[in-house]
Amino acid sequence: MSAVLMMGFFSLLCSCIFMVLDAVDVAFTEAAVGAGASTIFFLAAIAIVGRTSKPSKPGKTFIPLIACIATGTLLFYASFDMPYFGKADAPIHQHVAPRYLQESAGEVGPPNVVTSVLASYRGYDTFGEVGVVFTAFIGVLLLLGAGTRRTGVERPAPPNVNEESMRQKVVLREVADLVIAPVLIFALYVQWHGDFGPGGGFQAGVIFASAIILYALIYGIVPAQQLLPPRKLAYLPGVGLLLYAGVGVYSMLRGGNFLDYDMVASNPLDGQHYGILIIELGVGITVASVMINIFFSLSERSL
Amino acid sequence: MISAQLPAIVLLLTLLSAPVCSMIRNGDNAWKVAMFAVWLSVAAAIALMAQVWGGNTISYHMGGWAPPWGIEVRIDELSALVVILITLFGALVISALRESLRTVMRSHRHSLYYATFLLCMSSLIGITITGDAFNVFVFLEISSLSTYALIARGRDRRALIAAFRYLIMGTIGATFILIAIGFMYMVTGTLNMADLAVRLPEHTDNRVIQASFAFFTVGIALKVAVFPLHYWLPSAYTYAPKATTAFLAATATKVSLYVMIRFVFDVYGVEFSFTQMKLDVLLIPMSIAGILIASLTAMFQSDVKRLLAWSSVAQLSYMVLGMALLNVNGLTASVTHMFNHAMMKAGLFLALAAMIYRVGSSHLRDLAGIGRSMPMTTAAFVILGAGLVGVPLTAGFVSKWYLISAVLDKGWVWVAALLIVSSLMALVYVGKIVDVAYFKTAPAEHNAVKDVPVSILVPCWAFALLTIYFGLDTRATAGVADRVAQALLGIAS
After folding, report:
1. Which residues are A151's β-sheet partners?
2. Has residue A56 been placed in a domain?
3. A·B CB contacts under 8 A
4. Which H or E element spans position B74?
5. Cβ(B395)–Cβ(B465) under 8 Å?
6. Does any domain span residue A81?
7. Nearest by Cα to B250 from B128, B313, B186, B339
8. Whole-angstrom Cα distance, residue B328 to residue A120?
9. How wide is the angle at C-alpha A213 spanned by C-alphas B141 and A145, nearest 5°?
């Protein structure tokens, strides 16, 4: 239990470090995913398996300890020859980065260079990452099997002590009521504003999902599932991935390479713009629905 | 137009049919979609091979951005061979999967299972064809996640522990690889593999690159299951669902080995990897120890699945040894054996899956007399087993021949002797199964056992016949491997 909380704390610290390093987009994602969503998933998992672990035998921790020390030593050894922090002539600022910084506005469009790199220059990687999220979803579904039971039909709503008591906490309920709607709107803002400021599909998806998860935590899983029936929700991750790939395939049909947004519209810059908007939507749909799906299947188990 | 887009198509066929499969409720329909996609991707893979045949290279720019700014997909003969390996063997396994799943899982989960299988396949293809170091990691994540899910789906509860153990080891491996890639990027400012190969030699004295190499070697060795980092493999293979083991044994470790060869020879370069970092001094003793110890362990197993898994550890060590010998014959042996062993082991696990399908267990005791009750399946098993031992006229002979000549090129007669001893060990453990199958009487409760349905039998025999075919015609395997080896070692042919 405390390990999970420490992990959440660690993620929050990490996101602060990323912030200091001027990687706002990464910090945003880390805060939303690492400190937010994954902590909740861990807690949900603990609700199933119980919070205490068997104490490990003293001898068993020896090899992992050695491995950790070796890894740390190697990292420390390497740090002597690393370029100084923030030095302008470090290789990473010399080779590919200048083109991203100087040309992206003319080639791709969005003022946020990070979005240009993620969505266009390295759009194939981002496509792969959506694939990772989708795989995680399929894996959880395959193993835990959410969405296979019809909610409310086979199982009448179980009298759940936790949920009842949660709903009776006035402060929690009132704050949640206040917060949920703005969070949803904020998610949409992050989704569509990724071109200009930090944000994009990944962050928006997680924020959107966290609002739903908050609702489910306060009001119970059953009303949340009535709002978003798991059977239908299970289609969405695939839809998002196919939407992303669809842009790529469309550009192939128009005579370009996979994910060449120049081909999406008659004017290359417009094409980049539409292409990025649509793929970000695909990312958002996949991430949000995967998060909600995973939460549902974990909490169905713990009921 | 299609021929120019093949590098994307070969990946997208499997990757995009995965979400489609997951949306189809009916398992049989999902299977049809999967079959359609994988057999088309086999055709695409063969067409790709035709394009690069003779030593050409295809460079395909994702998103239309030229490397190093964009991501490049780069296909040469080696990657085309590995793509054929993944698609062809994957397709054969999927063909048998429908029948095999029926006994294991309730039907509504079948579509999800096919989707996971397709994701695993497509990510392995993605790893193989990419020319971008970070992209390797992205697809590595997909392949790892899908593999964990596939293994954990095994019927035995111990599958969960096996999957979790693999998850921990695999995650450590992947993280190390990520650190290695990050370090390379820090020093060179690029992620494109060809570009890295040009820029790294300037930095060979840099400790960051040396540490990166160390992280990479350990990380990928975990994934390849190089002895002594093979710890996760036997139980993962043993408890994974039957036909899935066939696919995983054929592809997952082979693709990791491909990544290892690609990075060690192409990205870091022979000069740095072997002359400066002395990778061979590390790998040769480890692989020889792996061959002997794993073969020995295999001899004493009574569960055939576990026996074959241990044999995989030994066979993987053959490939690593061939690679570390650093001569043309050795690399040829390594690449040829990668293909041949994938074929033979997939066939063996599939034939074994067919036996489990009938008798419900892979314990030697339960396989007694199976040669009489399931003659066709057992005959295929015996042919494939002969390939594993390295009997002439089978594919296994070809790769062992190259390996032994490579060792003799080095003048290491004692290593050659050890290799022959290990082949004899293989003869012992395969012979043990054959003995039980043909010369023991079947237990009474297995009287009704008969051969498996055609849909499983045909893929088994396809593997067996391919084993013989590639034992006779080596143009596509050793021929390609020879050219690849010369290119990797920088020898102009």
Report:
1. A155
2. no
3. 169
4. strand B72-75
5. no
6. no
7. B339
8. 41
9. 55
Longest dimension (CA), chain A: 67
Is the separation of the CB atoms in A164 and A246 below 8 Å?
no
Instruction: Quote helix, strand, coil % in chain A, to nearest 5.
Output: 75, 0, 25
Concatenated DSSP letters of A234-245: TTHHHHHHHHHH
The amino acid sitting at A181 is A
Chain A residues whose CB is inside 8 A of the B179 CB are: 75
> Is the pLDDT reported for residue B39 higher than 90?
yes
- Among A108-112, B56-60, B385-389, which stretch is predicted with the lowest mean pLDDT? A108-112
| A146 pLDDT more than 60 | no
CA A297 to chain centre: 17
For A209, the domain range is 111-303
Both tokens of residue B151? 């293994």
State chain B's maximal CA–CA distance in angstroms. 71
Q: In angstroms, what separates the C-alpha of A81 from chain B's closest C-alpha?
A: 6
Q: Do A139 and B68 touch (CB under 8 A)?
A: no
* Single pTM value for the model: 0.90
| Nearest partner of B468 among B400, B402, B397, judged by Cα | B397
Residues in chain A: 303
Task: Using CA coordinates, name the residue in chain A closest to B9.
Answer: A258
In DSSP notation, A234-295 reads: TTHHHHHHHHHHHHHHHHHHTTS-TT-GGGTSSSHHHHHHHHHHHHHHHHHHHHHHHHHHHH
CA A30 from centroid of its chain's CA atoms: 8
* Residue A151 phi, psi dihedral angles, 5° rounding: -70, 140
Q: Which of B195, B478, B140, B137 is nearest to B330 (CA)?
A: B478
Q: Hey, are the CB atoms on B146 and A139 less than 8 Å from each other?
A: yes
- A-chain CB neighbours of B123 within 8 Å are 131, 135
* Tokens of residue B213, six digits: 């190499």
Is B145 an interface residue toward A (CB < 8 Å)?
A: yes
Q: For tokens 């908050």, what's the residue? A: A214
Alpha helices in B204-327 (DSSP H): 207-224, 233-239, 242-261, 270, 279-299, 304-324
Across the interface, whether the CB atoms of A238 and B20 are under 8 A apart is answered yes
Using CA atoms, how far residue A115 sits from A110, A276, A286, B452, in Å, is 7, 9, 18, 54
Reported ipTM: the value is 0.88
Separation in Å, CA B351 to CA B121, B209, B250, B348, B438: 21, 45, 14, 5, 15
* pLDDT tens figures, B470-487: 888 888 888 888 888 888
Question: Distance of CA B422 to CAs B49, B345, B395, B416, Å?
Answer: 34, 17, 17, 10
Domain presence at residue A62: no
Number of domains in chain A: 1
Is there a domain that residue A212 lies in? yes
Closest to B163 measured CA to CA, from B154, B175, B174: B154
